[in-house]
Amino acid sequence: MGLLTSLKSLFILQLLMGFVFVVSGLIINFIQLCTCVLWPFNKQLYRRINCRLSYSLWSQLVMLLEWWSGTDCTLYTDQATVDKFGKEHVIIILNHNYEIDFLCGWTMCERYGVLGSSKVLAKHELLKVPLIGWTWYFLEIVFCRRKWEEDRDTVFKGLSQLKDYPEFMWFLLYCEGTRFTEKKHEISMQVAESKGLPKLKYHLLPRTKGFTTTMQCLKGTVTAVYDVTLNFKDQQTPTLLGIVNGKKYKADLKITRYPVEEIPDDEKECANWLHKLYQEKDALQEHYHKEGSFPGPTIIPPRRPWTLLNFLFWATLLLSPLINFACGVAVSGSPLLIIGFLLFLTVASVAIRRLIGVTEVNKTGSSYGNPEAKKQN
């Protein structure tokens, strides 16, 4: 086990895995671009193809969590709720406290067959991130600048276009709008106090506009809202870099299903419902910090082999020519070729590190608390 742990931390192995992800992602993005010719003639075929192409890329990250790091994911919910997973259009409300919270969400999507069709209301800056933003663009992800005056038409149009989506989708909302930090929490609670709202200990005050708009636009399509509260055993602070290094974490997810019929249609009442939900989420986190677990029965969904097989396919396809080329460079003895290849490896490692940096708490750009930015809803 110690030898395996040492192998996982080897930079060369991590670099090769990163190479597979980046190059396969570029190939997938090119194929996605080619599928655009289908849109005017058969929109649903375009969507089904892009769901599978997106799965081929995102499942490589899920593979890191499930197979490389061996991270455990335990669900705290009832069997009746689990029986509906992957069989309906839903909105997911997830707390935004960790660098890999999205990855834990994707793992659940993969295990219940909706990874390729999963959606998110994403910040516009991510559209410019290679691979991630480009893949999301072809997947019809809704991007917003978090300024309602600018976002109104874009969000309404993007959400309305998803009403006839052919695959069951899980639409993820980070209602807090940004990842939790102590500084943001302090500012958020000042806003809560000014609005006469109960203070939260483990969450930021939810921004209600995105939720109420999504509910309004997807009415008749979405049948339920899944509230997901995530935490980790032993007060772990997981990072994507830790996952890449093969570190194992233990994730716990408390999931509660709310049929849309139980959620008010009126915008103000719907917003109040969301605030009440976050008070309940805060109580769940308080229980977890005291007891070390969430209340209720537990279910551990088995991991599927498809993420590993997909990665092995891309690794076999892409690493063979790379290794042959590297051997050729070494045998040639040409200083110019060797320097060029080393430069390529350096650029590749920097690019991969930049992609990882997108998830890091201390590097995620946010205007939260900026007096020039638009205030919270």
From TrEMBL:
Gene Ontology cellular-component terms listed: endoplasmic reticulum
Family matches, as CDD domains: LPLAT_LCLAT1-like
GO molecular function, a single term: 1-acylglycerol-3-phosphate O-acyltransferase activity
Pfam families per UniProt: Acyltransf_C, Acyltransferase
GO biological process: phospholipid biosynthetic process
PANTHER family, per the entry: 1-ACYL-SN-GLYCEROL-3-PHOSPHATE ACYLTRANSFERASE GAMMA (PTHR10983:SF9), 1-ACYLGLYCEROL-3-PHOSPHATE ACYLTRANSFERASE-RELATED (PTHR10983)
Location of the Phospholipid/glycerol acyltransferase domain: 90-212
Domain of life: Eukaryota
Record field: transmembrane: 12-39, 311-331, 337-356
Stored SMART domains: PlsC
Family statement drawn from the similarity comment of this UniProt entry: Belongs to the 1-acyl-sn-glycerol-3-phosphate acyltransferase family.
Keywords for the protein's UniProt record, in alphabetical order: Acyltransferase, Lipid biosynthesis, Lipid metabolism, Membrane, Phospholipid biosynthesis, Phospholipid metabolism, Transferase, Transmembrane, Transmembrane helix
Name assigned to this protein: Phospholipid/glycerol acyltransferase domain-containing protein
